[in-house]
Amino acid sequence: MARRPLTNPRKQASQERSxxxxxxxxxxxxxxxxxxxxxxxxxxxxxxxxxxSIGSLYQYxxxxxxxxxxxIDRHNRGLMQVVQGALAEVAGLPIEKAVRKMVxxxxxxxxxxxxxxxxxxxxxxxxGRLAKLETFNREIYALFKAYLESRRDxxxxxxxxxxxxxxxTSIEALTHTAVLHRPDILSGETVATLVDEATRLVVxxxx
Amino acid sequence: MARRPLTNPRKQASQERSxxxxxxxxxxxxxxxxxxxxxxxxxxxxxxxxxxSIGSLYQYxxxxxxxxxxxIDRHNRGLMQVVQGALAEVAGLPIEKAVRKMVxxxxxxxxxxxxxxxxxxxxxxxxGRLAKLETFNREIYALFKAYLESRRDxxxxxxxxxxxxxxxTSIEALTHTAVLHRPDILSGETVATLVDEATRLVVxxxx
Amino acid sequence: MARRPLTNPRKQASQERSxxxxxxxxxxxxxxxxxxxxxxxxxxxxxxxxxxSIGSLYQYxxxxxxxxxxxIDRHNRGLMQVVQGALAEVAGLPIEKAVRKMVxxxxxxxxxxxxxxxxxxxxxxxxGRLAKLETFNREIYALFKAYLESRRDxxxxxxxxxxxxxxxTSIEALTHTAVLHRPDILSGETVATLVDEATRLVVxxxx
Amino acid sequence: MARRPLTNPRKQASQERSxxxxxxxxxxxxxxxxxxxxxxxxxxxxxxxxxxSIGSLYQYxxxxxxxxxxxIDRHNRGLMQVVQGALAEVAGLPIEKAVRKMVxxxxxxxxxxxxxxxxxxxxxxxxGRLAKLETFNREIYALFKAYLESRRDxxxxxxxxxxxxxxxTSIEALTHTAVLHRPDILSGETVATLVDEATRLVVxxxx
DNA sequence: TATGAATGAGACTTCATTCAT
DNA sequence: TATGAATGAAGTCTCATTCAT
Lengths: 207, 207, 207, 207
Prior knowledge:
The structure is a homotetramer.
Chain A: H1 16-36, H2 43-50, H3 54-60, H4 64-90, H5 95-111, H6 114-122, H7 134-150, H8 160-181, H9 183-186, H10 190-206
Helix pairs in contact in A: 1-2, 1-4, 1-6, 4-5, 5-8, 5-10, 7-8
Chain C binds a DNA duplex through helix 1 and helix 3.
């Protein structure tokens, strides 16, 4: 009964040597995801790429899913750093400037290891333990909603929960799609154009 | 290795019996995708569910991918019917009404066999021949852009290509996310609210 | 839920070709059990010995256990044939002769493929689905008890169920141990001695 | 391949700490055998349960088999204590009383840690160094034969070696089977019945 | 054309054991 | 002497696909 969730790491790497092994495994997983795709990312191949025996791999991660989950976590931590840092600057700004900044952040975030981002977005079966991707977005909703609350008097009357949903979903979709599927839209100065447009979309919606 | 990736049906099912076989195969694939997920959808299982021998399956479809692609096509054809029909009604309408209608259509479209929609959206590796999902959206962009052109004098000055991208992407993201991940937003009369909000978002952006 | 018991064959071999495959698998399993022991009887090795691909093996048996169970069944069917046939002759005999005959049968039975018998008796983990070995003995108890009932008036007053347990268990233990572990006791004419002794043991107990 | 099969402890645990480690290892092995069965008893798990590093385990026992053999030895030593002590009392008794006592002893012996006894009897592959289980019985034979010799004048003429085989094998089989597989036979006062029957079986055989 | 038996590469995983620290 | 990280052979099993009948 109560089988432990197969996505959590198996043991903490205490000694320095094992720390290196764990790092190598995650790094190898990410590299293979990017280079060969999710389907080709077998545990054997990951172990080989990490220069580690398959036995060691299973000493630290109980499954391929756990490894991928670790890569996702690492990626999300990276994103969060970008986003949170930038969002702090936004706190005091008026809506127009704030939204503009946020759109820029979103684009930056999507450009942080975009190949990995694409694989995670497009090849991961949102199944089993890998469904936990939503966690990340929930946090963004919360942060954005908090900002809206601090500026409520500049907004029209609206359910802030719903407004946050509309804004975050739209900005994320626009930047995601643009970065991953419409490189034409982002080439050179058209970046500015996209930022303008997305900002206009959101700002006029909120006011 | 390096087996040729075949995605197209092998032969047109000209005779009636063949037609029935093909239908049974696609139907079985869809049913299994929904019931058991992409991972569990083995060709042997599909053949069994279709009441057809595995040999026959390969007589009509050269690979599992081809089968899934056929399901996608069928689903997209269904979507297109809903969308195109409804979009025709939109042609003559002023922007506000047109957009409102389009949002409603998008929601309806996502509600057409939503379980299958979800599987296609979340479990399919967007890899190999299965990457062709974009095709569908391209057509929608084109239709929407055509509408915008017909109403250009009611719009602010803007690159219509870009505007279409912004509008279609946003509407699709909002309706998709709401239908698949935020059932709370769509329960009962809040549907109307979502339609209002999405309409406002797009209309004010365009003007 | 209700996962099918992993010891039953997977599908009936309908065509002649598959019948041959199934036979080869069981034969190979028995041979390897005898030659290399239970631990070395891996599915790969069995398939190889059977001249069949590992895939085919799993088409008919879902596990190593299922294969071993099939061997046990076949062995037990063989034993039953020996035992039942001989037991029929015993029906009308008086106790002394009947018991003597039964002891002889028991020895014969243990000598039917004794190497396989030994492996089944000594190397099988009586665990999981392989615990079903008892079935066989139950039938023997019943047959013996039926005989005792038919001769009740020649016996002292005794719970026949219990008496059957005592007699069958003793005869089985003596013949089993002698055949498998004490070849000295069975060499040449000492067989007769063992039969004498076992007969005396049981007959005097019953009267 | 061809690794040397080592079954003897590696060194005498002379110092106190070592002694504690060895004890912990054997205790852990026994506990895991009982709780999880032979298959699940991996050396890593045993080491963990013993609160000892896997390296230390191999410092004291060169293989998993050696560990299990140690458990068997400990169990057998326990049995021997029960049996020998009781058998001493038997020395001077007449046959009827002596046999009755021995049967009772046999039942007691099987009830000494019956769960472990069952695992040892049913899950251990009687293979490699683990085949040495017979040792124990040999000693019992010898003790019993010695008793018979001391009472030869009360017995019919018979090969005492053979008679010992018949008696010991029967008693052991009856008590073993009753304790492990026929709890019904041993519930409450039926114990007495079984003792009566087994005694009758052996006594009448010997006279 | 249909059938379904057969294939086998390759995925996942465990575990007894070694050895550097 | 103790530790525990690392090893890798070997085992179980699946599944897309082929091909003889």
